[in-house]
Amino acid sequence: MPRLPFGCFVFVCLTFSLFCIAQNQPANTLTAREKAAGWRLLFNGKDLSGWHSYLEKHPGKAWKVENGCIVLDKNAHSPYADYADLTSDEEFANFDLKIEWKVEPCGNSGVMFYVHESPAYHETWNTGPEMQIVDLCCSPDSRILKCRAGDLYDLIAADTEWVTPGGEWNTYEIICDHGHLQLFENGHRIIDTHLWTPAWKQLIAHSKFATMPDFGSFQKGHIALQGTENGKLWFRNIKIRTW
C-alpha cells in the first residue's frame, strides 16, 4: 500500500479529528467557537419556547418535542390547526441559519424565511420563499423541477443534489445578506442568487406566486417550518447568527 505524504497524513488526521468532535457534540448546543462567532439557538431541545403556529399564539397540538427534536406527528384526521406551520416568534433581516431535518419516506416540507405574519396572508408561503424539503425517492414533488430537495421552491432549481434518503438526517444552511441569498445542502452550496432585484421579480412573475403581490418582497420576517402533507417530520440543531 502506498504511503501518504506527511502533509497529507496530518491533513487527514486533522479532518478526521474535527469530524469526530462534530459527531460527539451534543445536539442543540453551541461550541465556544460558535458562541464567539455570534451563533445562538432557536430551539433549546426541551420545549417549543420561541415558536408558535402561524397566526396563532401557541404551537399546534401536532408539534411536539421528543428526544431533543421538534417533531411533527400528524395523521389523516388531524385538523389543520394542529399542524399549521411552526413560526419563529422573532423576525430576522440579515442572517445565517442552520437547521437539521429528516422526514419519513415520501415526506414533504420546507423552511420558509422572510415570512410576514398578518391575517392578510393565510399561509406562510404567501410571503416567504421556501427551501424545499422532500424525500427524493417517492414524493410527487421529487419529479418536478424547482420542487426537489434544496430547491428555492418553484423559483430556482438546485444545481446539484446532495440530499440523503427519507429517514436520514440532512443539514440546510440559508444565508441572507442584504439580498444576497445562498442555500447550502449538507455543506454544499447549491443556489446563489439575489433577492428584490428586477430579475427576482421576473422569477416570481413566472411562478405559482405570480398572483401573490407581496410574495418575496419583505426584507425582514419570520422563519417557518412547514407542516408536512404526509409522514413524520423531525428538526434539531436550529441555530442562527445575525448582523
From TrEMBL:
One Pfam family per UniProt: 3keto-disac_hyd
Signal peptide positions on this chain: 1-22
Residues in coiled coil: none
Keyword vocabulary terms for this entry: Signal
Segments forming domain 3-keto-alpha-glucoside-1,2-lyase/3-keto-2-hydroxy-glucal hydratase: 38-241
Molecular functions (GO terms): hydrolase activity
InterPro entries named among the record's database cross-references: AL/BT2_dom
Protein name as annotated: 3-keto-alpha-glucoside-1,2-lyase/3-keto-2-hydroxy-glucal hydratase domain-containing protein
Organism for this UniProt entry: Thermoflavifilum thermophilum
